[in-house]
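User: Study the chain.
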Amino acid sequence: MEDAGLHLQIAEAFINNMVEGVGFVKVVFDPNGKPIDSTILTVNPAFERHTGIKAENFVQKRLSEVDPGNESVWLEGYEEVARRHGSVSIERYSKNTDRWFNVEIVPMPAKNIYAFILHDITEEKKERWTKEENDRRNRYLHDLNDSLRSIEEPEQILIKAAEFLADHLDAGRVQYFVAERSVEPSDVFGSVTASCGRHLPPMNGPFCLTDLGIGSVDLLRGGTMVVRDVAADSRFGAAEIERCKAIDVSAQIIVPLIRQRGFVAALIVHQNGPRDWTPYEVGIARETAERTWDALERVRAQNALKRTREVLEKLVDERTKKLAKSELKYRTLAETANDGFWWTDADGRITEISEGLANLLGYQVDELLGRYWTDLIDMGWAVVALKIWGEREPGKVSQFDLKIRRKDGFSIWMQMRFMPVTDEHDRCIGTLNALTSIDERKRVEEELRRSNEELKQFAYVASHDLREPLRMVTSYLELLERKYDGKVLDEKAKVYMHFAIDGAQRMQRMIDDLLAYSRVDKLGKPFSPVEMDKVLATALKDLERSIDDSGATIVNDPLPTIIADGDQMVLLLENLISNALKFRGDEAPRISISALQVADEWTFSVKDNGIGIDPSQMDRLFQMFVRLHSKEEYEGTGIGLAICKKIVERHGGRIWVESEPGAGSTFHFTIPARRYHGRTV
């Protein structure tokens, strides 16, 4: 024992100066020479540095205390050293320093005493692992690309990729969630398009991200989420943890796919127990997600291109067939059309004319060839025709109505549509003119115009001339009522007198409204810039008493300046606001007026909270004398909305209503955004 102690002292003095971590251990053997335990005798300072553990935590400690659970590894090493009578190496990992060591066990001269020397192999280990991981990654991605390359259906690409990744990671479940629309800022609705279950059942169908236990806003911005254990992760709230439990998920990798329009999909890896995901596993999931989606978009683009090519080929085939028949159709049209067309050269001489058109004008075809087409125009229309002819543009079809003289001297109305034809240098070489007889249409239009003028005149005169005798009837009835009230007339006579006066007054209001209706066109003022804010102020001033009596609240957005008849705009707003005040519900009226420009027109809106309109009555709403309620419920003649419609149509606009019974109404009307002195208003 003295020799052993001396040897140990000499060895300690030597190893204390070594760079490698070194220690001595005493091994206990059973009677059969098999090691059963060991005790660490000493370690040098380098050992402490390498392992990150103080010597007092090693020295005089038994193996079961120093490295519990791994005693068999060390005992097998000691046994191998005893059998060989030489050194043995084993690999061990230090959690404290995150380093790997090759531990060399060396027999010492003293009985049952062994030395162990630590050699740091961390960099070699990492280099070997990196090469192995790269080889594994390259093989995986090569096989994945090969499998996806031959698939033509987008959904099958996602399914195949999910199967590949689930096998590679031995994951519980892998699925692709494809976004469809946002539900709220932190959630998205979509479908699980591909799902491969190994240790967990697959999930398919429509879901929200929150249904899958995912609710992080960071995910929607593009950050990969790695979760070891949902229940222990502070990023998950109680509701999300419960959702994860419902689908038996503890660990996750979620890789969002972000494209130009934002979040489009997510690759989701599930595990039904806690799992420490390695950087390699997270990286391979991210690469699978990106490469698969790129393959999906490539197939979508190829399929779209294929469909487009098929459509174009079909169109080309159809166009070719049409062109093959075009000459025959042209000749047939030229010879059989009742009206027809003519060709002219660049100077306006007729080079070809259809027989039907020549016959309509009373000529033979030969009589018209070589003549200038303007020779056939009625003198009253020659200037207009030449002006339009001079403004013609290549490739643009122009159209106008004009009178053409027949050979017998009579003129007929024709509609001419013409388009200049150019050569390869864009020079005008002629014009194709298609002509249609509209003589009968013009005659009917003229009759309608005269009839409308007569009706307007009749309505104006009738309503104007009826006012005086009706006023006289009303006045004398009121005089009778005042003079004989309480003297001659009994109660029944008073009722009769009241009915007569009320009827005469209603007739007076109806005549006034009819006169106003007839004046929309007849006495309308020329259009000029009108500030609709001022128009609204005037209308509200005129309705001030009705507004106060009803307790109404009226608000408006800033209104534009338009080109219109200002007085008629006042009447239009008065009628619409008056309607909102009249047809109110139990609550005080709330009316809002706004305007919005869309393209080349202004849309005005008058919204109320009134009783609303029965949808079945919408078509009758703007007709003359239409009342949706009895005069006992609401007074009025039923002409107000007809006047509104006539005013709006005079300005080239449209009027309509959106309503629901009991929920109020919104009347909309449009006014074109016309130009005035070079600027649009």
User: Anything to note?
Assistant: DSSP finds 18 helices and 25 strands in the chain. Confidence is low (pLDDT under 50) at residues 332-338, 627-634.
